[in-house]
Amino acid sequence: MKIVYTAPTSSKAKLTAILEADPYAHPSFSRNGYKVKDGAALGEDKANVYLYISCNEEFVKMADEKLKDVAAKAPADVTARVVKKIEDEENSAEAGFGAIFG
Hints:
Blueprint: E1 2-8, H1 12-20, H2 29-32, E2 35-38, H3 39-42, E3 48-54, H4 57-67, E4 72-73, H5 76-101
Antiparallel strand pairs: 1-3, 1-4, 2-3
């Protein structure tokens, strides 16, 4: 499951603190993996940052609880655009490494 949360840029420090807290816990954001992108870099609202997570439903419940005071789930249309842009970036990076090492 791929999920996107959005938070105001002014809350980025709080969001980062939550994401980086207790990296060795099970579950933790660090163990699961995530990406935080500025809205301007994604062609979205530049007043926001976007948190992308690929995870299972149990992790989503934990994430919802930990992020409830800082971030909210993005609307479905925004989620679809952000997921596509991040996956396109990852695919481009993989193709670049293939050209270097292939």
